[in-house]
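Section 3.1: Structural characterization of target chains.
Under the original work plan, the team committed to producing a structural model for every single-chain target entering the pipeline before any wet-lab resources were allocated. The record below documents one such target. The sequence was received from the expression subgroup and is listed exactly as submitted; it comprises 543 residues.
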Amino acid sequence: MNRHGWWRDAVIYQVYVRSFLDSTGDGIGDLAGVRAGLPYLKKLGVDGIWLSPFYPSPQHDHGYDVADYCDVDPVFGDLEEFDRLVAAAHRLGIKVLLDIVPNHCSSEHPWFREAVAAGPGSTARARFHFADGRGPDGSEPPNNWHAMFGGPAWTRITEPDGRPGQWYLHMFTPEQPDWNWRNPEIAAEFDRILRFWLDRGVDGFRVDVAAGLYKHPELPDADDPEADARARDSVNPLAWNQPEVHDVWRHWRSVCEEYTARDGRERLLVGEVSVPSAREHAKYVRPDELHQAFFFDLLSAPWDADAFRKVISEAMKDIAGTGSTVTWVLNNHDQVRAVTRYGEPATEGSGLGAARARAAALLMLALPGAAYIYQGEELGLPEVVDLPDDVLTDPIFHRTGSRARIRDGCRVPLPWSGQASPFGFTTGEQSAKPWLPQPDYFAEYVTERALADTRSFWHLYRDGLQLRSSLPQLGEGTLRWLDTPPDVLAFARDDLVCAVHFGTAPTPAPVSGVPLLTSGPCPPGVLAGSTAAWWVVDETPEP
């Protein structure tokens, strides 16, 4: 595996801290729990971890509403525990990435409180997007934009003298006011924040909403104001993907390279970039901007050989062509888990969804570039689809009243051991219930059972990661598409072939003379059933 530019073909494990492992018994995961789980992750074979936000926050959007960017919320620990976690991870050879949220903060952030108190026209309000309302009494929002999580993107405040006042912009929830990046104070503040964590030894940052930050300077009405809410994605071209955002990433890249020059340790910037095409995506990973950006098109592709080939080809052409590497992902904390997604409309945990998720995992690990694994993916966890309304915490549900695409179901705490909840997730003499209830069927997915069963998802991932590290054909590089029968997708990495069967026939035909049911040196590739993926050595000559 290429170690020059460790991030280029790294496999990073996303830790959703509040659902990983609870060390205090309060029912919420914490940094000490992450530290306790590091040997498990080392055994799995990942190169690094990405920690979801653990900063002080009122938790209106589970930490993505940040009240203080340079501290740890007491629910998760403190800075001393964070330092112990980083040191322990580094001793095991595991990199540590933090989730940074530069598009918006919490309405309880000191600067936002100052802005509300300061009044119209103040320098404090200039750090955010405050504007007068429309209409004779200012009772209508400044424009027609809608927030991604539902409802208007503007909220009116009460001025210090008690009168109805200005409006402020929030592209997510009212508790998450957007920063005004046209104000140089914001860039300077985030420069300070980056350096605070880099000085504590972190290896880089996952950048939330990396296509955001800048809005159209005139904040005009949108042609389709509900596009973001309807798609629940960054669609409004006036609010996202403004050209000035690239200057931010050039500066952040220079900060990372400054630290790398000091000690030779490369720091990574990986962005959450939602843009219309792979070509637009590629602009964010040019040599002087973000090192990588998540390529979500593979995650959202339907289970179809042609669809997978199309998105992979586009990524290799447009993104890898910048000199970066593609950053593949099949799951994360915002998406329905692959086992359920691929099995729809079947019920959770269906054999079909599980077989497809196993095949997709092997496909992803065989692709050139980097890969990110979301916690529980390696256990084959399904989405929890039947959480009662009264336990749901996702602001999307509370703002829209709809359960469609809510995110609680993929955030249920991990099952570690035992036959009943809390399945080893929370410990202590007076352990509280997990912050989201775990279903009884999680007993089938506990890690202790997965580690003992060589046929489990966990062993598929572990073996795939070991082979990815040891086989020179994998990691960074290129691929060559092979001619295949219908419903089969196959590509070569030098003399190694990855073949995925998308159809329903029990036995696919050979690809380029390679017998697809022969595992060769790659035992994790042999799966039962008609939906499967294989890694095999192709002994046929180059065409």
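The radius of gyration is 24 Å.
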